[in-house]
Each structure stands twice: as C-alpha cells, then as structure tokens.
Amino acid sequence: MTRFLQLHFLTSFAASNLNRDDSGSPKNIRIGNTKRLRISSQSLKRAWRTSDTFQQALGGNIGTRTRRLGIKIYEDLIAGGIDEKNAEEIAIKIVGVFTDNEDKKENKLETKQLFHISPQELQSVNALVAEICASKATPKNDDERYKLLRKEHTAADIAAFGRMFASNPEKNSDAAVQVAHAFTVHPATEEDDYFTAVDDLKSKEQSGSGFLGVAYLGAGVYYSYICVDMPLLLENLGGNLDLAERTITALIECASTVAPTGKQNSHASRAYAHYILAEAGHQVPRQLSLAFVQPITSATVVEDSIKALETTEGAFEKMYGACRNAFARANFVQQEGSLNEIKNFAQEHIRAVHGATKG
Q1: Nearest residue to 173 via CA among 121, 246, 109
Q2: Where do the structural domains in the chain lie, given as residue ranges?
Q3: Helix residue spans in 136-183 (DSSP H)
Q4: Any idea what the Cα angle at residue 124 is, between residues 231 and 90, rounded to 5°?
C-alpha cells in the first residue's frame, strides 16, 4: 500500500533574511565543505500554519500555540464574577492539564513553555469556564470536567506537525509531516548592508544622517523537502478524508508559495517554487539533497539545479530500483505541469490510502 508522499521544491529568493540567527545574520550551514544559507524547518512550519493560505483552507481546524491560556481563563473567570483567589487556582488547574508549570515561581498563569491546544479542547475549556461562572461553584480536583486533553481532534496543524505531553504520553500526536531545513544549492554567504536614515527636520546647515546601521542579507536558490506519512495523517485526523485532503493540499500550496516573514518589509522576499516534484509510494523515503552536496557553481543555477535533482533521482532508481510508485512534476523553466496537478496527485493518493485502510 502507498504510504509516503514526498515533496521536493526548488525556490529562488532574492535579497532576503527570512530566518536569522542570534546575531541577526541569515542562518547558514556547511554542506560539501561549502557554506550555504539555510531556512530552518521551524521557521517554515510557522510561516505555513499562520499564513492566510492555511487559514482559508483550514479555518476552524487549526490549533492554538500559547503560553497565555491561563491568563485568558483567569480574566474570563474574573469577568464572570469569580473572586481572584479562586480564579487563579482554577486557571492554574486547567492549564496544568496541558502542561507542567509547577516550577514557575512568578506569574504562574503564564506557562514556562508553549503548548498546542486543539479547537475542540479550547471549546471545552471555554465551556467549563462558562459553567463555573454560571454556578459560582469551584469544581473539585478530581472533577471529570477537568479531563480536557483529547487524543482525538480535528486540528490539522497538530495532526501534521505533532505535539508531545511528557506527563501524558498516551495523548501524544506523532507528526505525520516531516520538514527538512531548506538550504541553498550553491555556495552562499551573508552580506553586510550598511544603511543610513536621514532626519527630515534637520536644518540646511546640518549635514550627515540621523542614524547609521548595519543589516544582513543573502540570496539564493533553495532546495527543500517534505515527507508525509499519509496513513498517520489520516489516523491523527480520526479518518476524516475531507480534512486530510484539505490539509495536504494546503501544505503543498504553502510550501510552494509562502515564505517566512523575517525582514519582509525590508526585502519583499516573496517567491514561488519554480520546480516541484511529488512522489508517492510505500518505499522508504529519501531526500534528494545529495544532488547539491557538490554545489552548483554555474551562472545557470536554476536550470542546472533542476538537472542535478533529476539526475540524482534517476541514479537512485538505477541503484535501488523503483523508489516510488508514481510521481508528478511542475517545472517552471520547461513550462510543464502545474501546482494544481501536484495537488490533484496528492489528493488521488491520500484517497487511495484512505480506501485501503477502510478496506
């Protein structure tokens, strides 16, 4: 049975700083003993799940990542007439269902770590708060209504990217979508951008700028890779085929068209993928990053990166036999294929997986 959907992208970003390190420079990595620019998987996933594209496709089926749920619960309880002491105790008790916050000495309502709560869980929390406000009665510690954490949910982002509860491992959701760090297929380094700002109200006698500064940027063609465990995605979504289809197509569109938001106002570094390869099969997944261990150094980097990717793909097939059961391509350079064809390919295969699991 087909299990995995693998997605490979090539995307060219002009001057940008989409994902920076602690010094403000674009993140980087050495591959093939050559420095490359890098965009972390965390940055990519954050950009996708918060994008308008994801929201429009999956509105109502997206979880909330927060440290501040306790503050919201406390404020709602106070507004509902619960005294401050009880409101704080109840809020801490409810939040404790989702994350351990016992070691926090100050502002116990704000948790130490972000946690991911599904729409159904948030609705249950809000319903419990409303009940408490209406009855003015504080539930006992063993009250069944405190059992708010659910294994089953319809949060597409939790189903795709997973979540973990150290104290409740049986409620964990393993990520159905694996996302690699994107990196440039050619040598690339960050550049220093010396800039000034001029004071509009300075007198004619005054010269010079009102501010001097240095920013950092880089540019390049990036290779990125995604692997989707389709049966696990369906399982995480309770077998909801429609939601799984919408999740996987939203993911493909986001990976093709949505960039991280870092320094966008300074660079307008918006870009669509110019090459997409989708593969479906039961075989053990494999990246095609080997294509770029030896960096592309020619002037025709776009064309040559596509050629290197397809050559590596063919070499794997020759060495190991079929590495996928079916594939689809969209190639901007050759004007072949389309994003819709890639989406349709993914939908066709997740339907087949759904049918096989039901059969």
Answers
A1: 121
A2: 4-58+175-189+218-358, 65-154
A3: 156-161
A4: 130
